[in-house]
Each structure stands twice: as structure tokens, then as C-alpha cells.
Design a protein that fits this description.
The chain has about 100 residues and is mainly alpha-helical. It has 3 helices and no strands. It holds the Pfam family CCB3_YggT.
Length: about 100
């Protein structure tokens, strides 16, 4: 595999890894908001939460469309994180095979 392909795989792996980190931060902040630990009346906090929702919602929406309703529980972040981890593993596997 060429250096260009290896570089593109590295960039894709970093992007997926960064998205996983953003989703974990969004999950933690959603719990903190649900348990009234974070004050959402603060404009900075509200803007940060809005930014996190804008990034993560396009990934959650397709999963929510086919998952059944579990009441107040939303399992779509967990499903998306599992898929992203599988994708990251595939990218790392392709990079490892390129080195052989």
C-alpha cells in the first residue's frame, strides 16, 4: 500500500477516534444535565451542549429510526459507539496489513 493510502487511513482513524471522544463527552454531559449537576441557564454551557448535539445528532438519528422505544432510555449512542469502534478496528487492521 502506498504512503498516500496509509496517510489517508491514519487521518480517517484519527477522525473516528476524535468522534468517539466527542460522543463520550456528549454522553457524560447529558447525564450531568439530566441529574441537574450542570446549570443549563449559563449561556456558555448551553452553547457547548448545542455544539455537542449538532455534531452527534446526525449519527444518532439513523439509529433512532430503527431502534424500538425503550421509554426514557436512549441506546443509540451505545450502538453508534460500537459501530465506530468496529470501524476504527477495521482501519487499524488495514494499516497493519499495509505495513506487512
Amino acid at each position: 500500500m502506498s504512503n498516500l493510502a496509509h496517510t489517508l487511513l491514519s487521518i480517517a482513524g484519527f477522525a473516528v477516534w476524535a468522534l468517539i471522544i466527542v460522543m463520550i463527552v456528549q454522553i457524560i454531559f447529558s447525564w450531568l444535565v439530566a441529574f441537574n449537576v450542570i446549570n443549563t441557564y449559563n449561556n456558555g454551557v448551553r452553547q457547548f451542549l448545542y455544539w455537542l448535539d449538532r455534531i452527534t445528532e446526525p449519527f444518532y438519528r439513523p439509529v433512532r429510526s430503527f431502534m424500538p422505544d425503550f421509554g426514557g432510555l436512549d441506546f443509540s449512542p451505545m450502538v453508534v459507539l460500537i459501530v465506530l469502534n468496529l470501524l476504527l478496528q477495521l482501519i487499524y487492521d488495514l494499516q497493519y496489513r499495509a505495513l506487512l
